[in-house]
UniProtKB/TrEMBL annotation:
Transmembrane segments: 104-121
Protein's UniProt name: Protein FAM162A
Keywords, ordered alphabetically: Membrane, Transmembrane, Transmembrane helix
Subcellular location: Membrane
Family: Belongs to the UPF0389 family.
Length: 155
C-alpha cells in the first residue's frame, strides 16, 4: 500500500513540474512575438481578444491488476468485471480499497465478539463440570509425576 502511495506522489510531483515547465515555455512563446529592432525590443500591438490561458489538469490513470479488479467489484463500484474500464484513477482504487478495509474490519469485529461470546459459554459449561485451570494443571502435574516415578522404577 505504501509503494502505491509513493508512486502516486511521485507521479503528482512529476506532472506539477511538467506543467510548470510547459507554462513557462508558453510564456516565452507568447513573448517571442516581440519585434527586434537594432537590438532593442518593442512590443507588438496586442489584439483586444487575446485567448485566455486555459488550465487543464489530467489525472494519471492506472491499469488495474486482476486483484484490483476484484477489489473494485467487491467494493460495489462496478457490478461485473466487464464494466471495469482499461484504466482507472488512483483515487477510485484508493476509495475501493478503503471500502474493503472497512468491510474487513467490521467482519473482524463481528468475529471477535462471536469468539468472546463462545468462550463465555464454554467457560460456564466448564464451571458446571467443576473444571478449572487450577484443577486441570494439578491433575496434569500428578500424571507427570506418576509417569516419572514409573520410569525411575523401570530403570
Amino acid at each position: 500500500m505504501g509503494s502505491l502511495r509513493s508512486l502516486r506522489q511521485a507521479a503528482g510531483s512529476y506532472f506539477r513540474l511538467y506543467e510548470r515547465g510547459a507554462s513557462s515555455s508558453l510564456r516565452l512563446m507568447r513573448n517571442s512575438n516581440l519585434k527586434r529592432i537594432n537590438g532593442y525590443c518593442a512590443k507588438p500591438q496586442e489584439s483586444p481578444k487575446a485567448p485566455p490561458y486555459t488550465y487543464s489538469h489530467r489525472v494519471p490513470l492506472h491499469k488495474p491488476t486482476h486483484w484490483e479488479r476484484k477489489i473494485l467489484i467487491w467494493s460495489g463500484r462496478f457490478k461485473k468485471e466487464d464494466e471495469i474500464p482499461e484504466t482507472v484513477s488512483f483515487e477510485m482504487l484508493d476509495t475501493a480499497k478503503n471500502k474493503i478495509r472497512v468491510k474487513v474490519s467490521y467482519a473482524m469485529i463481528a468475529l471477535t465478539v462471536a469468539g468472546c461470546i463462545w468462550m463465555v459459554i464454554e467457560g460456564k459449561k466448564a464451571v458446571k463440570r467443576n473444571e478449572s485451570l487450577t484443577s486441570l494443571n494439578l491433575e496434569k502435574k500428578a500424571r507427570l509425576r506418576e509417569e516419572a516415578a514409573m520410569k525411575a522404577k523401570t530403570e
